[in-house]
Amino acid sequence: MAIMLWLALGAVLGWFFAKYCYAQRARAQQIFSIGLVGAALVYIGFVLIFDGVHPWFWIELAGVFVYGIFAVLGYRGNPLWLAVGWGLHPIWDAALHLWASGANHSPEWYVLACISFDVVVALYIAFIAFPTNRIRQFETH
Q: Which of 9, 23, 67, 117 is geometrically suited to a Cys-Cys bond with 40, CB 3.0 to 4.6 A?
């Protein structure tokens, strides 16, 4: 029951975040990009709070770098890179923070909410926030 609650909460918050970004029109790509990097940075905060500077810190820092690349590509280029980054982040969430030792420093409720948040934002970017001509551009490059 609690799992469904956190997944539902994450989905609702993801929807509101995506709607907020979309409402900003000219700044939407920038805000989606900052949010993607922020989603990765949260896990660094968890490591520092619960484990201190720990070897896991470097894994989380690598995640910030990877998602930072998607953020830059999506901000400076095609916004569908943002959808890809947000769409891959739930895999990072689940694989490292539910099933691997990252679960030692990441609260389960947050990981579950983050998974559904990320999926909703990725789908919103891909299908609602940006016109279909951008999708065709993405496929041809």
A: 67
User: Do the Cβ atoms of 93 and 119 come closer than 8 Å?
Assistant: no
pLDDT digits (tens, 9 = 90+) for 61-118: 999 999 999 999 999 988 899 999 999 999 999 998 888 877 788 899 999 999 999 9
Q: Do the Cβ atoms of 6 and 112 come closer than 8 Å? A: yes
What's the CA angle centered on 8, arms 101 and 70, to 5 degrees?
Answer: 60
* Residue pair 41/64 in contact by the 8 Å Cβ criterion: yes
Helix (H) or strand (E) holding 118: helix 108-124
> Given a cut of 50, is residue 141 above it in pLDDT?
no
Range of the domain at 92: 2-140
Q: How many domains does the chain have?
A: 1
Q: Which residues contact 61 (CB under 8 A, 6 or more apart)?
A: 44
Cα R_g (the chain), whole angstroms: 15
| Whole-model pTM over 0.85 | yes
Terminal Cα-to-Cα distance of the chain (whole angstroms)? 44
